[in-house]
Amino acid sequence: MLRAVLLSLLVAIGASACSSSPDPQTVEEPGPEPEGTKATLAYVFDGDSIEVEIGGRTEEVRLIGINAPEGDECFGERARDALVTSLDGGDLMLVEGSDGDMDRFGRLLRYVYIGGENVNGRMLADGNAVTLQGDHRYNEAFVEIANLAADAGYGMWAADACGPWPAPGMSILDVQYNPPGPDDEQLNDEYVTITNEGEGIVDLTAWTLRDESSQNRLEFGAVSLAPGDRVTVRTGCGTNRPDTVHWCADRSVWSNAGDTVMLQDTHGNVVDRWTYQGE
């Protein structure tokens, strides 16, 4: 049933990109190719970026709205392999989004289609990437697709995606991503609270707290939580205590426009996540 829901969402995304066919296509039919720029795949760098040939020139393309694990991270190679498989066997159609033509690295920001299917959404549906929220037309659909995949434990969201599952019970209790005042002036008012609802002590040493981007990562030092205990990770600087860890970032970490907070164990398994959309 869930696979059918995900497929229906993907088909609807494919159909909505086609000006000649505004109605959602049936699950059995992939729908017509959307309007865009035809390209030939040259190389897959990782799970969210590729190199293509367009009219005799080479361009790097960053898939809009997704962020796959890096090559040296948990699930990175599998995400790349999944994108290779998704793009195999046909010409690509590159469709512009609404959040800019290029990123700061000079890569084209595009939805990538093959056979009428939105490959960006497919990567999310199979659990090979996390949604990267932004000002683009499929943001809400991508969040929904990613949440369904995560709830089902597909791909990188599987309990043992990257190694043995730790003791159960660790969860994200609260996220304060938009405290009153300017974002970068009261950094310690921005925080994430983690709790141990299990039955044993959990050592968080070398666990990671991260956002949906590739920039913000906090590796825990010597922190242990007994059953019922909690620890609050504050974005600013300060003195660490058993119940408080300071990130000591020089700017806000959690995006007001929408983000995914992820707690990962030493193997890289996503132990818990908290996704929110902008206000």
What features would you highlight for this structure?
Immunoglobulin-like; 17% helix; 279 residues; 2 domains; OB fold (Dihydrolipoamide Acetyltransferase, E2P)
Topology:
Elements: H1 2-16, E1 37-44, E2 49-54, E3 57-63, E4 66-67, H2 76-87, E5 92-96, E6 108-114, E7 117-118, H3 119-125, E8 130-131, H4 139-152, E9 170-176, E10 191-196, E11 202-203, E12 208-210, E13 217-219, E14 224-225, E15 230-234, E16 244-246, E17 258-264, E18 270-277
Parallel strand pairs: 3-6, 15-16
Antiparallel strand pairs: 1-2, 1-5, 2-3, 4-8, 5-6, 6-7, 9-10, 10-15, 11-14, 12-13, 12-17, 17-18
Describe it.
With 279 residues, the protein is α+β, with helices and mostly antiparallel strands. The chain folds into 2 domains: 2-157, OB fold (Dihydrolipoamide Acetyltransferase, E2P); 170-277, Lamin Tail domain (Immunoglobulin-like), CATH 2.60.40. It is built from 4 helices and 18 strands. The strands form 5 sheets. The protein has a 5-stranded mixed barrel with strand order 1-2-3-6-5. A 4-stranded mixed sheet has the order 9-10-15-16, with no helix packed on it. A hairpin with a 6-residue loop joins β12 (208-210) and β13. α1 (2-16) runs antiparallel to α4. The longest helix is centred in the first third of the chain and has 15 residues, at 2-16. The two termini are 31 Å apart.
